[in-house]
Write a structure and sequence with these properties.
It is built from three helices and eight strands. The protein has 264 residues and is an alpha+beta fold. The chain has one domain: Sortase, Chain: A, CATH 2.40.260. Strand 5 and strand 6 form a beta hairpin.
């Protein structure tokens, strides 16, 4: 009989500690990347939507108050007249600065950021109570001017995370309009330029930005956020100048109406 060839049994693969640890690290890395993706993108979408909804509710409240005032008690309110060209900034009312932290007093509308973009502006720049809020997200620097006032109306918001209200701040182009809406109407600001500064260069929020000792002659809007993305090394600063005032009784600015926004 032919000699049978013996088959040697295969050695069972033995998992080393290093191999197990490597696989665990890969799994953890994947989970971390998924979490970062959720935090950066999905969380911004969810929180941003909540912030927009909160701003819309505030706008609706102002619109209803205006209709009630026009219609009078027990009478149906008439619709606002057609939109028209804005009035001189000199005629814009200036309200007192809110006293309470996270007290909402205005909304921000930036057509460059999207046709449905709207965020609530609240008093203060406290990170936990204002900038991380799921209802506000944009904060007014205490002590800086109010909308329509000579000087510098300075506001801040995150560029990423927590709804990223200023996620597209550096996309602004010269001539873009930025609107601040209050119970009184719409303050139109026109974008003039960007600047990148260090965090300690706080003179950007002076009544005359970068010239703290000067007397203001313009109504300025300064929007600040961190730069670059995912870093706090610098600040991106967007400057705009007020160019028109639209009283609520005259209807919203034509640009907003053409974008499909309605006085809710």
């Amino acid at each position: 009989m032919p000699e049978q060839t013996r088959t040697r049994p295969r050695a069972r693969r033995r998992l080393s500690v290093v191999g197990v640890l490597g696989e665990l690290l890969i799994t953890v890395g994947v989970l971390v990347l998924l979490f970062i993706g959720w935090y950066v993108w999905l969380n911004d979408v969810i929180v941003g939507s909540e912030q927009t909804q909160a701003a819309t509710e505030l706008q609706q409240e102002w619109a209803e108050q205006s209709r009630d005032e026009r219609g009078g008690a027990g009478e149906p309110a008439e619709p606002p007249p057609p939109v028209y060209e804005g009035q001189s900034p000199d005629s814009a009312p200036v309200r007192s600065e809110p006293g309470g932290v996270n007290e909402a007093f205005a909304t921000l509308i930036v057509p460059r950021f999207g046709t449905d973009y709207a965020r609530t502006i609240a008093q203060g720049i406290d990170v936990r109570d204002v900038l991380n809020s799921r209802r506000t997200g944009v904060g007014h620097y205490p002590g800086t001017q109010m909308p329509g006032e000579l000087g510098n109306f300075a506001i801040a918001a995150h560029r990423n995370a927590n709804g990223a209200p200023f996620g597209r701040l550096v996309d602004l182009r010269v001539g873009d309009h930025v609107y601040v809406e209050t119970a009184d109407g719409w303050y139109e600001y026109t974008f003039r330029g960007l600047e990148y500064v260090l965090p300690n260069q706080v003179d950007v929020i002076a009544p005359v930005p970068r010239d703290a000792g000067a007397d203001p002659a313009e109504r300025i809007l300064t929007m600040t956020t961190c730069n670059p993305l995912f870093s706090t090394d610098e600040r991106a600063i967007a400057y705009s100048v007020m160019t028109a005032w639209y009283p609520r009784e005259g209807g919203m600015p034509a640009e907003l109406s053409e974008l499909g926004q309605e006085e809710v």
